[in-house]
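Sample entry (173 residues):
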Amino acid sequence: MRLRTFGLVAVSAAALAGGAQAHAVFTNADAEAGAHWAGAVRIGHACQPGQATTAVRIEIPAGIDLARAQPKAGWTLTIEREPLAQPINDHGKVLTERVKAVIWTGRLPEDQFDEFAIAAKLPDQAGSLVFPVVQTCEGSESRWTEVPSADGSRPKYPAPVLNLSASVKHRSH
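Predicted structure, serialized as tokens:
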């Protein structure tokens, strides 16, 4: 997925409309562009009644070159990587790959919720980052991958969106 920038009104309307009903959402959907950030996607219910969640896959959008996942007790953590267009330096270590997706495999009963945490160095530009999530359950899956439309209408299966505000050091006075 690419960095997607929407009009402030469309993103705000989608966040307000989707916040109460969305089922894979960020615990805090706002961050500062260029910052080091840690957040979590909350899974609020099973895909279908009677099914436990057995896997959660979060795609890391293009534009985030450094990302890490937080392990969870009782869950297996898998990291998918892809080559970077240009190597980057991370505290003296040259990196040639980026985290493309993070997958936790385990069991979350239908009557419980949980949070799946990631940390990342965010891009410098303000806008919105879309993190598609696939929630796998016993016998089905929910694909929280749809992005808000420009008119602000709420999709049926909205992807979690992280809204990046301009960093203090990049704001005009």
